[in-house]
Structures are given as C-alpha cells and as structure tokens.
Write a structure and sequence with these properties.
Length: 144
C-alpha cells in the first residue's frame, strides 16, 4: 500500500508530507490542493505550488490516490493512518534477525491499558495459562 512498486521499503514521510497526510487522514473524502493548503496555512504559510508538489510526491510514493474533479486534482489517502503505522513497524521488525525479541521489548514498554488492549485484540479468551516462567519477558508474554 505505502511501498514503492516492487520494493520492500515503506515510504518515510518528511515533516511537510506528514502534515499533508494528517490533513488528508482527518477527512473522509478526497480533497483538492486548495483545501489542503487552506487547512495547512492555519499553522504556517505555504505556497499553493508547494502543497501541490508535496501531494504529487505522495502520489508517486503510493501514499495517496488522485482523480480529476473538473479541472483540479483531488487527493485521498490510499490507506489509513493505522495501516501506515503498522507498515513502519513491520519495516523496523524486518531489519531485526530476532523479531520475537524486538516485539517483546516493544510490548514490555507498553502502558498497562495498551497491553490490556493488545491482549484482547490477540486473544479475546484471555492469556495462555501454560506460560509459567516469572522472568520479566515471560511475565509480559504471559500477560499477552
């Protein structure tokens, strides 16, 4: 979705690209450059051509789709903010030969409420009672 054609590298966003994507993700419909510009200019002064170039770059990266609406292009995200975040996490994990250890370190840093949410998402019936070790890593795994 957010990967370049044939590549396994997720598109990393620059500061302005991230601001544009946040604007698009906040809306349920495609937006023309002018509307994106108007929203972004609430916090900074940008030129129309700057926003147009950023949207074109995001389109080339596969982050947004565009279509004609009259004479103007309108842009809409290809995926959700959460799917983009998941792809960034997948890329980070792909660079580690021990994905399990990396995941465990990540999970150990989660606040209790997010750990509970993760547990419910993974197994709505509850934790695995067969995990009995009391090491911090095993305790975290047991909680999942």
């Amino acid at each position: 979705m957010f990967v370049e054609k044939g590549a396994a590298i997720v598109s990393h966003l620059g500061q302005l690209e991230a601001a544009v994507m946040e604007c698009l993700w906040a809306h349920d419909e495609a937006m023309p450059v002018r509307e994106v510009l108007t929203e972004l200019n609430g916090s900074r002064e940008l030129a129309y051509t700057t926003v147009m170039t950023v949207l074109d770059n995001l389109h080339r990266k596969g982050m947004v789709a565009r279509s004609k609406a009259g004479r103007a292009w309108v842009y809409i995200p290809v995926g959700s903010r959460s799917s983009y975040t998941a792809e960034l996490m997948e890329e980070a994990l792909a660079g580690n030969p021990d994905r399990g250890a990396a995941l465990l370190h990540f999970v150990e840093k989660l606040p209790a409420d997010e750990l509970m949410q993760l547990r419910q998402l993974l197994d709505p019936t509850g934790p695995d009672p067969s995990v009995t070790s009391k090491s911090p890593a095993s305790e975290t795994a047991r909680q999942l």
